[in-house]
């Protein structure tokens, strides 16, 4: 497959800049793979397509306030810092992106907070844009982390073309988010409300959680035409023994296994065996899924509408079939579905 095959015309007004009023009231486009039937629904209708003992797998990663705005020492130049991951808690070392990167050198100090109460020193240039920062803080680690996150801002995607607002702190987060470490929210899970989760229980639909700490890698522009030459950045994953036992039991009994989001799909495919069984894993994945691709364990997928050329669109096409999904996307544009993390959803099912 070629990068250019994932181009489509997306009017800017269809990119959702704000979430729907209620989590489960966004639109839902249901794609039936075998019959090619399409249905236009509301997201809260999603459970109509599942039976008791079917199994939903969610990503319980938690987004942390990763955007910091500070000033450079001496010049006072405004600097934006995007926290990517914590490298060493004891030394307060973080892997970060800095903008504008050209203004920052090793040894520079950066000041954050209204009263410049938090100071960081640039100690390494890791990539053309990346840096390693050491935060200079003498107090207890818990106090440092609390102060760092109080200063930070919710890292909503750049394509929303706006700053984070108070509402984003709660809405750009799944209600079941638990394991802190993501800088990008698993968007498919944003549609699930507490009422919808309660209805799942009442219908006896099973669910469980794995963890993939979503980084920026899946959202960076691909710079090669031949997709086989693209390398994904590694992201941390955790799949517990308990989840595997429950999922494999449901699979062996013939129930529908639904991946809620492409991050879940990637994590499953990182460890699934050839006989369709999920295996426990704690480590990293850089798996890149694009068409053609054979899935064994996962029978249905809930995902948002993704932007052109994105790896998320490629994964969706791998699951639903390239021609079918690109055709569906054309229909979604005509029907004015909303795209992006705060946009509408699609259910791909047999």
Question: If you had to describe this structure to a student in words, what would you say it looks like?
Answer:
The protein is α/β, with parallel strands linked by helices and 350 residues long. The chain has 2 domains: 3-63 and 169-349, QueA-like (3-Layer(aba) Sandwich); 67-152, QueA-like (Thrombin, subunit H), CATH 2.40.10.240. The protein is built from 7 helices and 17 strands. The strands form 3 sheets. A 9-stranded mixed β-sheet has the order 2-1-17-16-14-3-12-13-15, with helices on one face. Strands 5-6-7-10-9-8 form a 6-stranded antiparallel barrel. The chain has a two-stranded parallel ribbon with strand order 4-11. Helix 6 (311-320) packs across helix 7 (322-334).
Number of strands: 17
Name the average pLDDT: 93
> Secondary-structure element order, as H and E?
EEEEEEEEEEHHEHEEHEHEEHHE
Total DSSP helices: 7
CATH superfamily of the largest domain: QueA-like
Which CATH architecture of the largest domain would you pick?
3-Layer(aba) Sandwich
CATH class assignment of the largest domain: Alpha Beta
Categorize the overall geometry: globular
Instruction: Give the number of domains.
Output: 2
Based on the model shown, name its key terms.
QueA-like; 350 residues; 7 helices; 6-stranded antiparallel beta barrel; 9-stranded mixed β-sheet; Thrombin, subunit H
Write the layout of secondary structure elements.
Blueprint: E1 27-32, E2 38-42, E3 55-59, E4 61-63, E5 67-72, E6 78-88, E7 93-99, E8 109-112, E9 118-124, E10 130-136, H1 141-151, H2 166-171, E11 179-182, H3 194-202, E12 206-212, E13 235-239, H4 241-252, E14 257-260, H5 262-271, E15 281-285, E16 300-304, H6 311-320, H7 322-334, E17 345-349
Parallel strand pairs: 1-17, 3-12, 3-14, 4-11, 14-16
Antiparallel strand pairs: 1-2, 5-6, 5-8, 6-7, 7-10, 8-9, 9-10, 12-13, 13-15, 16-17
Helix pairs in contact: 6-7
């Amino acid at each position: 497959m070629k990068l250019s095959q994932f181009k489509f015309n997306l009017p800017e007004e269809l990119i959702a800049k704000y979430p729907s009023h209620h989590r489960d009231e966004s639109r839902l486009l249901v794609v039936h793979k075998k019959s090619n039937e399409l249905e236009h629904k509301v997201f809260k209708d999603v459970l109509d397509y599942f039976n008791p003992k079917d199994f939903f797998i969610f990503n319980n990663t938690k987004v942390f306030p990763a955007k910091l705005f500070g000033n450079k020492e001496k010049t006072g130049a405004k600097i934006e810092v995007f926290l990517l991951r914590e490298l060493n808690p004891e030394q307060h070392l973080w892997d970060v992106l800095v903008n504008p990167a050209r203004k920052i050198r090793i040894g520079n100090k950066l000041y954050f907070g209204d009263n410049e109460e938090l100071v960081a020193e640039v100690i390494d240039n890791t990539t053309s844009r990346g840096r390693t920062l050491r935060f200079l803080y003498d107090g207890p680690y818990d106090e440092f982390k609390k102060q760092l996150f109080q200063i930070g801002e919710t890292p909503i995607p750049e394509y929303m073309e706006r700053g984070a607002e108070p509402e984003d702190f709660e809405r750009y987060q799944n209600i079941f988010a638990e394991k802190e470490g993501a800088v990008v929210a698993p968007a498919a899970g944003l549609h699930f409300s507490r009422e919808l989760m309660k209805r799942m229980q009442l219908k006896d639909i099973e669910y469980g959680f794995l963890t993939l700490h979503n980084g920026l890698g899946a959202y960076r522009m691909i710079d090669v035409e031949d997709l086989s030459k693209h390398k994904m950045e590694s992201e941390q994953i955790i799949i517990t023994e308990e989840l595997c036992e429950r999922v494999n039991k449901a699979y062996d009994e013939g129930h529908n296994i639904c991946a809620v989001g492409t991050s879940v799909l990637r994590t499953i495919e990182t460890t699934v065996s050839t006989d369709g069984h999920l295996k426990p894993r704690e480590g990293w994945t850089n798996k890149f899924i694009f068409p053609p691709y054979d899935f064994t364990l996962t029978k249905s997928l809930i995902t948002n509408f993704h932007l052109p050329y994105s790896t998320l669109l490629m994964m969706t096409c791998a699951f639903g079939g390239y021609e079918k999904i690109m055709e569906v996307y054309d229909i979604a544009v005509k029907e004015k579905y909303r795209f992006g993390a705060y946009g509408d959803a699609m259910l791909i099912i047999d």
